[in-house]
Amino acid sequence: MEGPVLPPKNYQINRGFRFVDDYLYCEEIRVCDLLSSKISGQTVATPLYVYSKKQIEANIDKYKMAMMRETERNIQLSYSVKANMNPTVIKLMMDHGLFLTLVSGHELRLALQLGQDPQRIILNGSGKMDWEVELACKRGVLVNVDSAFNLRQTVRICQQGGYVATVLLRVNPDINPDVHGYVSTGQEGSKFGIPGEELDDVLEMAVKSERIRVVGLHCHIGSTLTDSHKFRQSTQVLVDLYQKIQKKIPEMQILNLGGGLSIPYKAQISLFEETKQMLDLEFDKYKDQRVLELYENLLNKRITLATFLESIKSLPHGIEICLKLREQLPAEVLVPEPEDLVKTVCDILPPNTIAILEPGRSLVGNSAILLSRVLGTKSSGKRNFIVLDGSMTEVIRPCLYGAYHHIELAEPSRISSHVNSDNQLTVVSDIVGPVCESADFLGKDRQLVPPHTGCLMAVFDTGAYCSSMSSNYNMRVRPAELLVDGDKATIIRKCETFENMMFCYTDCSQNSENES
Ligand SMILES: Cc1ncc(COP(=O)(O)O)c(C=O)c1O
């Protein structure tokens, strides 16, 4: 049945992704073409992570530009590998001169294997195994000491091996970062960092031991931060402590301020009606042609909210408009930029210190999509479901933290356009995976043009804490990962196989004939 159609999607999402006539592109490649052609001589299938190299580099540049502007300060950037441990991604960070922040001995082995200078590695962790501490101390990496027991363990291992450990003391600044409890790490009652009541003892023990060189302090209050003021507050705690103990530990020079900056996960949502009305009134006041054009592009979905906000800041009344919008939009649309983060702490950093920023999410989060196919659609009671081949095993954040990931059709729907009983072109559905678990959802209540079976859909912002948190639950193989650079795609992780999954099991039948 022929009927009305929605105008095709035509907008730039970021440096890596854009829609052209309803087709999603990663840089110069239409993502649907990735599945029909051979890549590095191989075919790939969904689900599939697709990364944009340009977007990762744009994220690095944003930090570097912000740091370079502060010519009086020595600020270093360290990539938090836990966000995404793909060696190609790590190497890209290394090529751009970043330090690496690690949370396990195997991350450390990988960083060393990739050739990272041990003096540009920081090993963190609230519980470290002896072999992990030993490897770190032996190779001379910076160790973030997290507790009295971690310090005693480090001293013991250094005595046994004849090493001297270079350490930062991770303090708990007791600050509520206003994020999901599972990613809050610097409040009283948290398992991370040296609690206030232990600090004096730890300092005394560290100063007395000839096996320990305290070169600085560290804190990290949490992840998905949307309020840069929290970052300033935690930095102030570190600075105050630094000034208090500087005489006792004159070698101290480093203040590791942690990471945690969020990304605008909701940058692609549509404007709410009230927000639109408010903006219409605002724009009636301002007659600047560039401002009006930008607004028109936003209304016609030629640009996303994030692009709009980034572009308008530098135009007349742009900051005012941003502030007005900030009051109306959810925090996940308008997040601070690296520049805001750097600016917010610079004036309180003591002279002659080296400050380290150690972001993960804001360096890689918006650089990837999970590409999935629709297996089918169904309804149960009042709920509609779009069932994808991608699931919680590839993108666990919605089910773990109730996190939002934007989801769109990555190609035009082949269902001939129709209007449903409510005179709507779109249908509200839950986007779910095939995993045998009701927690297996990728998005709830999403208003979308109904996709055909087999239609490609993109789950956005899956560059951080998706592949690195993926699992084999339900015996699902972890997907392949592709890196797109211009018009070239490379496989940077092969899809796992059944054999890979069974490799460590001892009782697996060798008789493959039984399979058929
Ligand atoms: C110590 C430490 N530093 C940095 C990070 C990176 O955080 P994010 O990826 O939110 O920037 C983490 C992650 O939670 C962390 O635990």
Give the arrangement of secondary structure elements.
Blueprint lengths: L10 E2 L4 E4 L2 E4 L2 E2 L2 H4 L11 E5 H17 L4 E7 L6 H9 L3 E4 L2 H9 L7 E3 L6 H10 L2 E4 L2 H14 L3 E6 L25 H13 L3 E7 L9 H18 L8 E3 L16 H13 L3 H11 L5 H8 L5 H11 L9 H9 L7 E4 L3 H4 L3 E13 L2 E6 L8 H5 L5 E3 L17 E6 L8 E8 L7 E5 L19 E6 L2 E6 L4 H5 L14
Parallel strand pairs: 5-20, 6-7, 6-13, 7-8, 8-9, 9-10, 10-11, 11-12, 12-13, 15-17
Antiparallel strand pairs: 1-2, 2-3, 3-4, 5-14, 14-15, 14-19, 16-19, 17-18, 20-21
Helix pairs in contact: 2-13, 4-5, 5-6, 8-13, 10-11
Question: What does this 3D model show about the protein?
Answer:
The chain is α/β, with parallel strands linked by helices and 516 residues long. It folds into 3 domains: 11-52 and 366-502, Lyase, Ornithine Decarboxylase, Chain A, domain 1 (Beta Barrel); 117-264 and 337-359, Alpha-Beta Barrel (TIM Barrel); 273-328, no CATH class. The chain is built from 16 helices and 21 strands. The chain has helices spanning 33-36, 53-69, 87-95, 105-113, 130-139, 148-161, 196-208, 228-245, 273-285, 289-299, 305-312, 318-328, 338-346, 361-364, 397-401, 498-502; strands spanning 11-12, 17-20, 23-26, 29-30, 48-52, 74-80, 99-102, 121-123, 142-145, 165-170, 212-218, 254-256, 354-357, 368-380, 383-388, 407-409, 427-432, 441-448, 456-460, 480-485, 488-493. Strands 5, 14, 15, 16, 17, 18, 19, 20 and 21 form a 9-stranded mixed sheet that branches. A hairpin with a 2-residue loop joins strand 2 and strand 3 (23-26). Helix 2 runs parallel beside helix 13. The chain is globular, with a radius of gyration of 25 Å. The protein binds pyridoxal-5'-phosphate. Pyridoxal-5'-phosphate is lined by residues 80, 82-83, 101, 124, 220, 223, 258-261, 358-362, 464.
